[in-house]
Design goal:
9 strands; 5 helices; Dihydrofolate Reductase, subunit A; single chain
Length: 206
């Protein structure tokens, strides 16, 4: 991992056969691990993940101070509820990640943006830019397999964390995206078990 990018953690809830859908997530355990393990300075999310949240967003308490930055990979400018995201009470501020072919944004849109890449967001350049912000050393990926797969393929993931649920043969979306997973050597960090048959696996990406 280049030294000019922050430490990137991909933390996902998966079935035994590697899918991220088709089962009931143990949300309490998942978020408890997030809050006590990495203390992220920034959260990196894909537009699909954020769009799935938009229907549930309501007026929140305002930005969390201190709290992590939310950076959203949104190459097609599909996300619209930026104010609601910022005020949800989880993040200190929000940041849009666009590329040069991203459609024009509404005039007067308040959200700051980083424009990197031509046909899609250049994730390495985006992480470098995020890492130059004061205090940003750890980035947690809060997204589905497509974004995680791109980050893995580009060698931008330092740690993989999988909360494995005791189900299999369900779902259709693997945590590494479409096709076979990128070939990577993984070094075990830790393993733990929880009630309900949950197993937590942590690996460093060599």
């Amino acid at each position: 991992m280049p030294s000019d990018t922050p430490y990137v953690v991909a933390h996902l809830a998966v079935s035994l056969d590697g899918n991220t859908d088709g089962f009931t997530l143990d949300a309490a355990r998942f978020h408890q691990l997030v809050s006590t393990t990495w203390h992220e300075d920034a959260t990196l999310a894909g537009s699909e993940t954020v769009l799935s949240l938009e229907p549930t967003l309501i007026a929140g308490p305002g930005p969390k101070d201190p709290g992590p930055l939310l950076a959203v990979v949104d190459g097609r400018a599909r996300v619209t509820h930026w104010q609601e995201l910022r005020d949800a009470g989880h993040w200190s501020e929000v940041l849009a990640l666009h590329c040069r072919t991203t459609p024009p944004r509404p005039i007067g849109r308040f959200v700051p943006e980083i424009v990197v890449g031509t046909d899609q967001v250049d994730l390495r350049a985006a992480l470098r830019s995020i890492g130059r912000r004061p205090g940003v050393e750890v980035v947690r990926v809060a997204s589905g397999g497509r974004l995680v797969g791109r980050l893995l393929a580009d060698g931008l993931v330092d740690e993989i964390s999988l909360l494995v649920h005791p189900v299999m043969g369900v779902g259709s979306r693997t945590w590494w995206g479409e096709g076979p997973p990128p070939a990577r050597t993984l070094q075990p960090i830790d393993t733990d078990t929880f009630s309900g048959g949950l197993v937590w696996l942590r690996y460093r990406v060599a």
